[in-house]
Amino acid sequence: MTIKLYYHPSPNPAKVALFLEEVGLPYEVVAVDTRKGEQHLPAFLAINPNAKTPALVDGEATVFDSTAILLYLAEKTGRFLPLDTPAARAEMLSWLMLVATGIGPYSGQCVHFKHFAPEPKEYAVNRYDFEAWRHWKLIDAQLAKHPYMLGDTYTLVDMAVWGWARAVPFILGADAWARLPNVKRLLDEINARPAGQRAEALKTQHSFKAEMDDQARQAMFPQNARLAPSTGATA
Ligand SMILES: N[C@@H](CCC(=O)N[C@@H](CS)C(=O)NCC(=O)O)C(=O)O
User: Residue 43 C-alpha to ligand 1 middle, in angstroms?
Assistant: First the structure.
């Protein structure tokens, strides 16, 4: 049975698309248009109760959360993992979780407050910009030591970084690459790989809503319903 990838052209689903393309496993893309609220449909919640993309169904196995999916696919295929030693595995898990719990959430909140939140937001922008930069500088320093996150070999951790690296100018600002040259190097290298190009092309093969209008804000920022209309956040 063909693997189904529940996908939106965003950082977390992109990581998984890249892995699938790298290993050449056949898969079918199921578009989940989060700006139309499709992540909240009962059929999707049965696959991912967290109402976020990506999720993956592989026969009897259902996996949600991009990091869980990367590990699932790496273990299933035996590909893009480091050496099977306690030390190498410990290093892999540490960096993979730093991307999952640091890069992803802080970059996501940085984007939210810079680009989508109503004023006043100076405190939040300052915190999340600071924390996003702090995490990205850790990744850049790691990539300054060797070509890939875990050394000389391209692994699932690099794919996890790639998913978010594509969005760095939107997260940190147009001039961010001058301060993150090693992240940029990895991004360019993966973008040039055939699998990177196929993963990137997925967004052009399915139609997704681009406007961040009332419907999109209600679907993606449901917390705003609790705010008074005068804040401007509910529109
Ligand atoms: N920890 C989750 C986060 C997933 C996530 O935030 N996905 C975003 C796209 S990158 C999404 O589906 N957002 C829609 C929403 O928040 O309603 C993962 O790594 O998969």
Answer: 17
